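Hi there, hope your week has been kind to you so far. Would you mind checking whether the tokens look sensible for this chain? I owe you a coffee for this, so here goes:
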Amino acid sequence: MTDTLSLADAADLCRAPVDVTAVLDRLVREADAAAPTSIGFPGAVDLDYHAIAAKLAGRLWNNIGDPSDDGGVAHTRVLERAVIAWVADLVAMPAADRWGYVTGGGTEGNLSALHAAYRRWPTARIYYSTAAHYSIPKVIDLLGASARGVPVRARSDGEMDYADLAAKMRRRRRWPAIVVATAGTTMTEAVDDTSRIRGVLDAHGADGHLHVDAALSGIPLALDGRLRLDDRSGIGSITVSGHKFLGLPVPCGVVLVRDSIRTTRTRITYTGTDDTTISGSRCGLAAALLWHSIATHGREGHHLRATTARTLAAYTVEQLTATGWPAWRHPHACTVVLATPPEPVRTKWLLASDGPASHIVCMPGITPATIDAFVADIRATAPPVPRPRPPADPHILDLPTPSGIA
């Protein structure tokens, strides 16, 4: 009976009886069927979390409050602290000026960091690229600062237009500036150059803060030594994702903020914790899964994963170009940008598309055989499209600067 209904109708709790096992089996079956052609969104599929999830999923792990709190039971804060320290060390954040926690995802991380910065500089204008993640204007709105948000042009390859940033900051020179840089834009995985942004901030002359939304590319860039939060970088906060490159089965992330910019916090008596995070109760399972991924693979293992994924992305560009279909990528990226394929290809393959451009994200776990099948479908259904790739810009493509992001 369940198989004759849509999944929504079979899951309808107003129907009686509900075949729970059949609904869950069908949910998994449909997800499994879609997985081989889901290549447009960033979620690694090469890591196996079954054992750790099974061990911990039988109870509630609630990391309520600040990660430094030790009170209570059935939490994973000790693992959370280890994760925060590992990520902070990876990006060379000064040990005496760091704070962070495991978030529910990149949006919460951006909210936490920008909330701290805006409380410190409540009259600041907040600058962000038009290629920034959609969470950034949403966060600015949540902060009640929509009138103070300043979009900055992005170039065709996705990188911020620094001349436009400088011009807009000059027109607002009397106000402090909070700038959001992106390390891995949604469509092209472009990386904003924080050294150039820091130069614009320094020339601005007013107080300010530089936040990096590194949800997509933060971990791979840090493993390369290309993303650093040392004192020379001038970066005040960063967020990275846990369910993208690290492929966790639950949405999560890590936010890091310089402790020196944080304002006072409130002690919650009945929980016995400091209220320092955006959410109250927090998922301790996510912190444990992040810890497990780092503990079992380490820097070398994850760096190899990043290298393999980039190699596959380069292979994808080569194969698409050879078949006459325009494609390109930034050398640091797992993302391949291509001319949007015709409807039959988009029906079969889950791509991310924005008008004439689409992308494939060659996350760890995607195989050459998958790419070959996709290219074969392009070859079979689509004539070549004469569209030139964007002009190369050595500044972004070479990523030479060791401090900050280049």
